[in-house]
Please model this.
Amino acid sequence: MRHFTHLKDYTIDELNAIIDEAVVLKKAPASRSSALAGRSLAFCFMNPSLRTQVSFSAGTASLGGNPIVLNMGSGGTWGMEALEGVVMDGTAAEHLKEAVPVLGRMCAAIGLRSFPAGKSWAEDKREDALSAFTKYSTVPVVNMESASGHPCQALADLMTIREKMNPKKKNFLLSWAPHVKPLPMAVPNSSVEMASMAGMNVTIARPEGYDLDPEVMARVKKNCEANGTELNVTADPQTAFDGQHVVYGKSWGSLAEYGKPPSADPAFRAKWTISSEKMRRTSDALFMHCLPVRRNLVVNDDVLDGPWSVVVDEAENRLHTAKAVLLHVLNLNSTRRLQETLK
Ligand code: CP
Model:
């Protein structure tokens, strides 16, 4: 049994094989319409979602399976406790130690979305809920965004890049952007990890105090060294755009001041909002964002509505990659089936 929870557990060849399957599914959406016949899959959300919820639900249905969406702790089902040994006299009515095995008796795979609480990075980084799911589950677990990673988003991102260019030696910029909240680091972490694994030169433009987690940066550095590519970190949000082929816009919270919203100073916001002036410095770069996005705060209308933007293509690819991930964790991917047929 193999979970799909962290990019670091996979090689780039394995990730590209999942994307290859997604490419086939995009071309022939009905080609595996009974692959999950007779199976139910549980998608557990501890936080809101549009793309992830719909891509896994619609993807399961189009593979012939039965998607069950559980909104945990918000009226849909019980609030869950993840830690062992606690006295459960708070809001959580059920422990994951029972709930996850129960889901495993009824469902073929389980997805989990669990955002950080935003009070202590040391605590959030432990990924208590995701760890409990993988510990107690008897069926594969898919990470649908945790505190430190969003591997399903990264797969769709790489698929979108592959549709437009060969990523090897191309230039990838992750550009920090303003926001009203200190957002999680899952998407920026996974985006640069994926870009570095795919053999891209990686630049991160961020204000001082907004460095990504050192463990993520160490993996990105190692990947870039192994691929002979460059890794740059800068606080200059103008020159960072020069010659880029992909611009990934994203806001995230500061590790140095964890839980504190970014400055609302208009000059600071104007400096970091992604504009068409900045995009014109690139080599006709793609503009990417995982969505949802706040217009004219993170990125201006003329970028999102302009020729650079592939954000809707990127969102559509969540569907195809979600289907490919489910086939992968359930050992139903086409390559494996072909190999078993040839045995
Ligand atoms: N990109 C993404 O995961 O979107 P949702 O939060 O809407 O699922």
DSSP finds 13 helices and eleven strands in the chain. Residues 7-149+316-331 form a domain with the Rossmann fold fold (CATH 3.40.50.1370). The first strand starts at residue 40 and ends at 45.
